[in-house]
Amino acid sequence: MGDDRLARTFVELADTLVDDFDVVEFLHKLVDRCMELLDVSATGLLLGDSCDRLRVMAASAENIHLLELFQLQNHDGPCLDCYRTGAPVSHPDLSLATDRWPLFAPAATKSGFRTVHALPMRLRAQVIGALNLFHTDAHALAPEATQIGQAMADVATIGLIQERALHQHDILADQLQTALNSRVLVEQANGVLAERHGIDPGQAFTLLRTYAHHHNQRLTELATSVIDGTTTIEILPSAPATGPDQ
Amino acid sequence: MTEATRADQVWGVVAAHAETLGVPVSLRSLCQAVVARLPVSGVAVSVRSARVVSEVLCAVGSLSRELEELQLTVGEGPSLQVLAGGPSVLVGELDCAEAQVRWPLFAPAAVEAGARALCVLPLRLGAIRVGAFVLAADRPGPLAAQDLAEGWVFAEFALRLVLDEQAGIDSPGGYPVDDELSGSRPEIHQATGMISVQLGVGIAEALSRLRARAFAEGRPLSELAADVVTRRRRFDPEPSA
What percent of chain B has pLDDT over 70? Predict the structure, then answer.
């Protein structure tokens, strides 16, 4: 990976942080950049909720199988191990990992993934979530890439704290709940758009993100106005919404 | 191992308390369990309603109802902020200049009534602002981290009980701790959005209908939601309406 691209990514992410902050868009952008910089096949970012269950905040593809895998990790899987211990967890060949993760390993293999890396999102002593990187080949992530991946996980953590500072309340649980709730809000808006336009929720998410970007609007604010009907997003006949963002 | 067990533990407390009282789990029995479990004097659940800014759905222990009604009287206060969409409000000491600047009418009156600390957590699901979960104490001091963490879990169960009531679902004897509502199930929220368009109703009403239907059919919420998202099921407006 080029140093230039790496530098540009961190500058871009830092810009997002100081600007009008939008947690869902920020984490999605971070996941997108992980895909480019680390050359992985799939990425997911999960946060722990008030019950300490992991919930998907952003994923590289709104792929059902991928989401199922993440959900499975509430009971069994590298992301959960990483979240519990606060240490990175990886496996170079999931087809040989059934002893370790009896549910997750076969499911991941069946979905075509061979390698997994789970990197902790840590805030001092507390682990707030984990970044999951999947690869379809059996090969270990280069040490340099692991470091960059961890830096991305750290940036994600800083992003969540940054918003806390902006709003001047001092409780992490509230920040995490707010972030998780933003994700729910966006899914509700995806549903509204999907029904209005006869598209699937993944396409609706692309539409929502694109519109927010073009109109310089926060994703959560746009989602709210889509849900209450104050904003209607039209699809131009010449530019129909195409497939999901990946 | 701490994962998932905090929810199990808290649900255990809620279920055990209801059993001691010989009643099914309800919002009221949950609030009573909170007062017994956490160092607070009172617990209240306030909800937004069509007619009024805020309605006290349930209040247990001392101070709880007074503080909610007081806020309605003076027109300001932490619960009203949370009901309006604000973040959680944690006040370790109401009897101080900072609190009085923040709420010039509410803070002195609350102290007069005997309250010293407050913790107001939002009951919210995406765009659905359901209400506020209020913990009040007659002694100053913030809740310990562990107690606050449990407070959030109690609030999550309270949210589901309020939603059950709104969906007309009878409180089941044993509540599924592993409820899918707030888990990583995007299809539930996507289906809610779709149903709101199909029926031409608000997002809260759409969720109520979805949950009521799943309950009536005895199906997991996520399964019915997946059918809606993949367009195997539609919700049509009732012809009589």
Answer: 90
